[in-house]
Amino acid sequence: MPMKPALTLYLAAPRGFCAGVDRAIKIVEMALEKWGAPVYVRHEIVHNKFVVDSLRDKGAVFVEELDECPDDRPVIFSAHGVPKSVPAEARRRHMVFVDATCPLVSKVHIEAERHHAEGLQMVMIGHAGHPEVLGTMGQLPEGEVLLVETVADVATLTPRDPDRLAFITQTTLSVDDTAGIVAALQARFPSIVGPAKEDICYATTNRQAAVKTIAPRIEALLVIGAPNSSNSRRLVEVGSAAGCGYSQLVQRATDIDWRALGSVRTVGVTAGASAPEVLINEVIDAFRDRFDLTVELVETAREDIEFKVPRVLREAS
Q1: Within its chain, how far is the Cα of 282 from the centroid?
Q2: Torsion angle of alpha carbons 114, 115, 119, 125, nearest 10°?
Q3: Does an H or E element contain 254, and which?
Q4: Residues with catalytic annotation?
């Protein structure tokens, strides 16, 4: 039997599930335990096919809009957050609903409302059409939040009053790209108010920092995550920007393009905040099948944050 070639796999830490994702999944599981199936979920609870499919198998029904849900079954709002109009409509219909919005996204919502109450117009840095952006912009009346995606967008911004502005950001952006957009906003609108603490969440920041640390040691980077996961796609970009010639997003081990990896001997592996550890282990096993594998853990931060689930799920029926 021919000898397997040697390969070192650098496993980034932190990687995978963050506290907000963990809480959102737990909310669906506890709702199914409390109320039985079906429980409806507006939008994918988190952006990961494996997670969504496993919850669907347990009795969760995923829909895009509230009007697809019956009045008499519980509905859960995804971790990305929802516009204010959604819980308002659920109340109008006397529905039982549980909000699984990540507390760090809720923090941005509260920030936007506070600035609005002070008469400031908001500028949001984020990706058009992303559920988190739609949810955050939907906290305020139409026209009160202006969206920018790039430095170029800043130049064409036409606010109501250039001296009465504040900015917020999507929680899953590239730290470096966002810093450039913030600098452009501050240069053009010197009096713009920013968040007291950065909106990009700890998990996004930590995972990007871990990728930057392993990038100089590796020839290829694999990011385990879904194509619609913003934070996973940012990790691919961070890997490329840090000098990693081959930086790819894979949903799971079966998506790995072994031919494209060629004869590399050092590979980095990380995972977006909504990718479960089981998929990471699956990728490591796929490498072990093909190579004489050495796994090195590269830990750049420890995460011990935990968010409580809503009280309604902790109380007995």
Answers
A1: 21
A2: -140
A3: none
A4: 132
Q: Are 44 and 78 in contact (CB under 8 A)?
A: yes
Band (196; pLDDT cuts 50, 70, 90): confident
What per-residue string of b and e applies to 183-222 under the rule 16 or more CB within 10 Å gives b?
ebbeeebeebbebeebbbbbbbbbbbebbbbbbeebbbbb
Distance CA 133, CA 122 (A): 13
- 104 to each of 24, 101, 307, how far by Cα in Å? 12, 8, 10
pTM: predicted TM-score of the whole model, two decimal places: 0.95
CA distances from 46 to 15, 26, 129, 230 (A): 15, 12, 16, 11
Cβ atoms of 130 and 43 within 8 Å: the answer is no
Contact 81, 105 (CB under 8 A): yes
Contact 66, 86 (CB under 8 A): yes
Q: At what angle do helices 19-35 and 49-58 cross, to 10 degrees?
A: 10
284's tokens = 């490591």
Residue 77 is predicted with a pLDDT of 97
